[in-house]
Amino acid sequence: MSEPITLSLPRILLSADSNIPPSGGGREDGTHSKIPEAIQRVLNCLNEEIPDYREINLAIEEAIKPLKKRCRNFADSATSAQQRTRLADVVHKLDSEEIGRADEFLVYDEYFGVTRSAIFTPVDLETHLTFTATRALEDIQHSVLGVDELSSVINSMKLMLEYCDGISASQRNAEGALLGPNAPLNSIALPPPVRSSEYRWRIGHHFFAFATQFCRHFLVAVARNDTSAPPDEIAGLIRKAHICLRGTTAAMWHAANMSRHSYQKTIRPSMVNKGGDGFSGTQHLDYERLKQAREAAIQWLEANFGSVPSRWPSAVRTEFRDYCEAEVEDLEHHTLIAASKVGRTTSLLQDATHPAKKGDQVPGVGLTAVDHLRSMAKQRRAKLSKFL
User: Fold this and answer.
1) In which domain, by residue range, is 275 found?
2) pTM beyond 0.85, yes or no
3) 79, 107, 109, 330: least buried by Cβ within 10 Å?
4) Distance between CA 14 and CA 217 in Å, rounded?
5) Is 5 part of any domain?
6) How many domains does the chain have?
């Protein structure tokens, strides 16, 4: 059995409750960082009639420069968390339905190098998102992503970094960057990017995690909105959630941007944990909470605009339709990724349950990984059909 991805790879810090901290009122001097502008120039290249990958890579190189500068500032001022992140703190943030799956969530987080904290400040968010965005862009320069996937990554990255640009000076000065006890100061430094499947797999999942939390954040904002909120405001929140959701899908394409041989030789074996249990995306705590946030948003929308989507305000109806379509397409994309990497083999969970028939579909037991994802996509489309 291959060993799990080593902890020498980058780690990130996330909030234990999956909540994005408030960004405050923005910079007191009214200025903005150069980062979103640099990211926008990458988008401009991608939006050309015939995108030129040489120009795109040059724009990415220029976008990395201000990000690296901010990373150096964070590394200079970062302080230890002094054991603020404890298992008890994280478990305390799990609800009654999640507590029974605590071990699953912790195994998933540890595999992907995620430390969670019950205390998560705006500066913590900006620090770890900035490092993740920098690493992702550096690695993307050596990938072969399609235009649509790359655009989705950059669009969501710009939105998340713009949110952090709103962090006020008082928030920045209140506390240094938070690092978990298993993530010492030197672990957030930016050594040259590693050209390996393990590195790409982890960086892609780090970006996926941030995009998932931001997507959830905007859906929660819908569900908690005042009933008198203008429809255009609600539509804007849904649009932002949609952008971040597309970012999660593209992050998976980035993470899996490797040969089938590399995936089967290195990545897939590493996901079989030491206990021999299977490994599944349903162990991703933030993604599970994202689905709950979507349901809460639906409840708010129907309570305020009625149970018939065609009668909703036009902007809200259109944005939520597009969001739901992206949810279905997300599972379709995952199906294609799985097909490209494992073909008609069984899932890791099925392999763990029936080791004697590892790699072969077990009659009457379950579907192959690809069939299971296709079934999930079909169920998701049926569930959201009234909004499509």
Assistant:
1) 12-387
2) yes
3) 79
4) 13
5) no
6) 1
